Amino acid sequence: DSGVTQTPKHLITATGQRVTLRCSPRSGDLSVYWYQQSLDQGLQFLIQYYNGEERAKGNILERFSAQQFPDLHSELNLSSLELGDSALYFCASGGGAGEQYFGPGTRLTVT
Amino acid sequence: DQQVKQNSPSLSVQEGRISILNCDYTNSMFDYFLWYKKYPAEGPTFLISISSIKDKNEDGRFTVFLNKSAKHLSLHIVPSQPGDSAVYFCAALGAGGTSYGKLTFGQGTILTVHP
What we know:
Chain A has no helices and eleven strands. By secondary structure, chain A is mainly β. In chain A, strand 9 and strand 10 (100-102) form a beta hairpin. Chain A is globular. Chain A starts with a strand and ends with a strand. The mean pLDDT of chain A is 93. Chain B has 115 residues and is mostly beta strands. In chain B, the strands form two sheets. In chain B, strands 2, 4, 5, 9, 10 and 11 form a six-stranded mixed beta sheet that branches. The radius of gyration of chain B is 14 Å and the shape is globular. The model of chain B has no long low-confidence stretch (mean pLDDT 93). The chains are: A mainly beta (111), B mainly beta (115). The interface between A and B is medium-sized, with 25 and 25 residues.
């Protein structure tokens, strides 16, 4: 158990809809990272928050946004969903020197 | 542009033998490298790391080697055990430029260790 929790575990929704994925980091970690893993793809970095502020951005679509709240939990919002957004979404918290601790992921299926 | 590449999608090894997983990178701004292991239905878990100032780091059965001039790293597992069967991801951390502070992952290698 990494100490990082993610909800929900599974999510099935239709194209055009909007969903929110939630992540609680390990106790004491200020950084939260979001990743997307599509079929046959490696983990693609989306965005990082540190203590409530956006710290780094990866290949995150404009339809996606995230935030980190004062209690350090984070939410990833995905809107105008397309079939290609179906993927595993992982949250991680760090972790000095890149040693990030990953949650179990949310499997999103867009139909 | 794939900055971290794991060219072998899969590797099959007999129990007790050595497993060697390889990873190549292109970005010279990477200065810290990590290996993660992932079981189905779980998130990746950190396994071992190496700084660019070293060429080897060992932790029990796991050893990571870094060849900076070749931009190549490898993970050796000796002896391999059936419980090591998982997907292994190589990752690199940037020291500067657009890769600063970000982990860039390879595509992963599926390791299967046969009893």
